[in-house]
Design goal:
It is a single chain. The protein has helices at residues 28-41, 45-74, 82-114. With 135 residues, the chain is mainly alpha-helical. α2 packs antiparallel against α3. The radius of gyration is 26 Å and the shape is elongated.
């Protein structure tokens, strides 16, 4: 959250002493939850990954369909049915994943607009009384 404010940041390295008493209340599951919350709340990468996975699955399904069509022409005596079902299921899942990613992107953009963060942070103003400032 601090990084989203937009100011220049500097890291300060220091050495911490070991904990003197007790133990951390953050176990592995809470640390994983904290990390997932940080990634999901401040990143659009998971939504874009849904779109990318959808495009990849559509490409694989299209290549599979092309392969089975060519195989059908080259060896007409092969059994029918299962290959087309697999290709259609993979194509459907890829299409749903792609469309879900697109809908997620739209919802993310609406959320970012409605979050009402200031477009700029005013450090100081000249010749404007505090009562006249409109943000």
């Amino acid at each position: 959250m601090i990084a989203s404010i937009g100011f220049r940041q500097t890291g300060i390295e220091y050495e911490r002493d070991a904990r003197v008493a007790g133990h951390s209340k953050f176990g592995l599951s809470r640390l994983v939850r904290l990390g997932l919350t940080a990634v999901l709340n401040h990143s659009s990468v998971p939504l874009r990954m849904a779109s990318i996975i959808g495009i990849a699955m559509l490409a694989v399904a299209s290549l599979g369909a092309l392969y089975f069509i060519l195989l059908k022409f080259l060896q007409p005596g092969l059994p029918q049915g299962l290959a087309s079902i697999h290709v259609l299921v993979l194509f459907g899942i890829g299409l749903q994943s792609l469309l879900l990613g697109i809908i997620g992107e739209y919802i993310l953009r609406i959320y970012l607009m409605l979050r009402s963060e200031p477009l700029a942070i005013i450090d100081r103003s000249l010749n404007i009384a505090p009562s006249e400032r409109v943000l």
